[in-house]
Amino acid sequence: MLSMRRHRRRPMNSFVAEERPRVVVRIVMVVLALLLVWFLGGKVIGFFTGSSEERAAARVGLTGQANVEVSLQESTPQRAENDLKLYEGDALMTRGGGEATLTLFENTRVHLDQNTEVLIEASNRRVVDASDITLRVKQGRVWITTPDRDSFSGAITRSIIMDNFTAIVPGSSAGLLANNLILFTQASGLGVDITLTLPDTDEKKIMLGEGQSLTLDENARKQIAAGTDPYEFRDAIVRTSIVDPFIMTAMAGGNDLPVVTGSGASSIASDDSTADLAVSSPLNDSIVTGETVTIAGRVGPRVATVNVNGYDIPVKVDRTFSQQLSLPASTSMTLSIQAKGSDGLLLAEVTRVVQRRKATLGVATITKPAGSGATFTTSEGEIEISGTAPANTTGIMVNDYKLQLFKPGDTKWSYLASIALGNMKAGENIYSIRTIDETGAQSAAVSIKVVSQAEGTVTSSSSSAGSSVSSAPMLNNAPLTPGILTVVAPTTGSSAETSENEVLIEGKTSVGTAAIYVNDYKLSLYVAGKDFWNYIASEEFGTLKAGVNTYRVVARNEKGEVLDAIEYTITKK
């Protein structure tokens, strides 16, 4: 009996000993299988829940090949190449005379003006979670055009960051972003969400809709910082404000032009193609109150000639065209704008209808310091010009400046002319005043001549005179810190040559500078404490002419004392 039990135990122990390794192997295999399933499942779930993320590239498009540089991951700037791909941490920079376009992964186009630098802080394409694009404009200005809201699958946030604000731009939008001015000719939904980030001021939010602009010049920034509602500086776009050559080029599409057909409807060209014709002026159904209409736009490289209703318009070297045409006496006119190749074949055609009407806007009146057409002589360094406006006036232009504090419906206006501000000089000064209606049309001008006989120092008691240096005597002392002023563009040194009609002079100064003057004109966009400045020398503005042009640049501190002074000459051929 006992031996039988022992005989039966022995096989059982052997069986258990043999099975134990097999069980362990099976358990290990099951665990490994579960780990594999968990890993692969996590990847699949991550893909469908949006954790999958792609660092998407932006493509560089060049307007000409010169004066455009890139910095890859903060490396030394190098010359940009057309169709170069940029990623997070890369920067695109344009110098004097250079322009470029960034095309983002969802077809947002950002056109860079001259002397502009843009850093790509984020460019992320996500499957389910919101994709995001963040661009920091470190200097200069850009024109942004976003694709239709339905053209990109999934949610996306587009952020443009500048010193004074952050803009969240929706789809189907187009507009200008600069530190001192924001305007959108197109904006979907509620519009563009602007968060103001002015120095020493709490964040303030404002919505900017289609056809609206927001002024953020020095005066506006000071008033907002003092508690004025930012909406006081929001206004309708005046058509004269978009005649800027950069804006016109950007609206026409830059080097990646939209294909324009019919009555101005456009569709975006493919990434490797360009348009033959883009018309920026006139807008369709424009209301014209004068005797002429301006035809302007841009053409592609295949186009040899532009023809409008049988009249040829010359195409400039930069592929733009602009021409004023007389209007007939009829109330409506259809303009057929055609782009033709060198063989005379029609490549593209755009139709614009303009409505002509007689100007009904009344003119302004000048009541102070004298009436319209008068000559007023003063020994003061500043003077207030004021008057009245018709009830239907939406804006007032004094020479080329639109009064920022005048609001639609106001019947009174005023303007400060000051030597310290640079809008008045010793001798004769002509101030022409025009009213603006809701269509952007301007009335006939009324004017006053102010003869300034101010001598010696100029003292300002007005709080609206600008920075603190405006209220200090303008001294002519020997430079306190010679050597702080330099010119870095269009060339370094003390002179340059050009054949252009407009040149941007750029320079450096010290952070102790409160104001910069060029030929006794105070640079209104220079911010006290900044170590850089720029000035536009232009034939249109009368600050550039054929031959030798001398520019005396003076840096002053808050006391009005001269920190440094230099001279720079530009010879226009």
Structure overview:
It is built from three helices and 45 strands. The longest helix is centred in the N-terminal third of the chain and has 48 residues, at 2-49. Strands 1, 3, 4, 6, 9, 10, 12, 13, 16 and 17 form a ten-stranded mixed beta sheet that branches. Strands 5-2-7-8-11-14-15-18-19 form a nine-stranded antiparallel beta sheet, with helices on one face. The model is unreliable at 1-10, 45-51, 254-274 and 455-471 (pLDDT under 50). It has five domains: 1-49; 53-244, Jelly Rolls (Sandwich), CATH 2.60.120.1440; 257-356, Immunoglobulin-like, CATH 2.60.40; 365-465, Immunoglobulin-like; 486-572, Immunoglobulin-like (Sandwich), CATH 2.60.40.10. The chain has 573 residues and is mainly β.
Short recap of the structure:
With 573 residues, the protein is mainly beta. The chain contains three helices and 45 strands.
Element layout with pairings:
Blueprint: H1 2-49, E1 53-55, E2 58-63, E3 68-71, E4 78-79, E5 85-86, E6 91-94, E7 99-103, E8 109-112, E9 116-126, E10 131-139, E11 142-145, E12 156-161, E13 165-168, E14 174-178, E15 181-186, E16 192-196, E17 204-208, E18 212-215, H2 218-225, E19 234-236, H3 245-252, E20 259-261, E21 265-267, E22 277-281, E23 286-288, E24 292-299, E25 305-308, E26 311-313, E27 320-326, E28 332-340, E29 346-356, E30 365-368, E31 375-378, E32 382-388, E33 395-398, E34 401-402, E35 412-418, E36 427-436, E37 446-452, E38 486-489, E39 495-498, E40 502-508, E41 515-518, E42 521-522, E43 532-538, E44 547-556, E45 562-572
Parallel strand pairs: 10-12, 23-29, 31-37, 39-45
Antiparallel strand pairs: 1-9, 2-5, 2-7, 3-4, 3-6, 6-9, 7-8, 8-11, 9-10, 11-14, 12-13, 13-16, 14-15, 15-18, 16-17, 18-19, 20-21, 22-24, 24-27, 25-26, 25-28, 28-29, 30-32, 32-35, 33-34, 33-36, 36-37, 38-40, 40-43, 41-42, 41-44, 44-45
